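agent> fetching stored inputs for the fe (ii) ion docking request
agent> found them:
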Amino acid sequence: MEELAKHLPRPIKEVITEFPGLVDILNEYDIGCGACMVGTCLFKDIVSIHNLPQEVEKEMMARLSGVISPSRQEVASGSAFAHLPKVREKTYSPLVKRLVDEHLLIKKWLALIPEVVKNMDVTSEEGRKLVAGGIDFISSYADKFHHAKEEDILFKYCDEQAEIIQAMHSDHETARSHVKAMREALEKEDKDAIIKHLLAYRELLADHIKKEDEILFPWIDGRLSETDKNAIASGFDKAERAIGAELPAKCEIFIADLEKNLPVPQNNFPYLT
Ligand SMILES: [Fe+2]
Ligand SMILES: [Fe+2]
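agent> prediction call returned; pasting tokens
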């Protein structure tokens, strides 16, 4: 493990670039750093952030060590801990959990999108109403209710120049550009363009939520003081009061109605749960 220890204080992005074989092992432990590569986390952060059971962590580190110095491979293939769950349930502070819970409703919408696309009819009043409802859900719930709290409050307590925060801002902006394009396409009854942007939005948000849930939020949780967390929670309360309880309630009904009317195939979305 000596060789591995030397790399622990280095940015994960650099280490993965040097040793691409690490990605497959990290993926096995449901650690998405290889796909994310926003570059903020250090290699050692992957252990603390992802909070693996102790024995599993030991095993994973030995396997990672085997990639870094193959001649000193410490664990043969086949695991003595195969019976243990590889991923420990993530624990968030109550503050961060508020945002993680809001992701659940957005993920329900992402899961419904393939059926919405399959049944899309922009030539009928009813069909256009459904598409408009979906776009409104994105702009009112995902953006105005959720992203705004991240951008206007939470991120203000972070280093806004940090690559990971910049990456989150950029994703939010891209999502807004899809909303704008979908509104324009709906006006023109351009079904192909709506579908193109809706599917691109789905892919973007699925990846964005995964990065927040698995990397950004645990990272923030570990760095913010209790005083900051309390101040952010008050900011969230104030923002939600200003928006009113009607908006999230309306959005929940929109999703519940869709779920009643459209079949949501199991496993149609890899990051739904
Ligand atoms: Fe976000
Ligand atoms: Fe979010």
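agent> quick read of the result: The CA atoms of residues 63 and 75 lie 6 Å apart.
agent> awaiting further instructions
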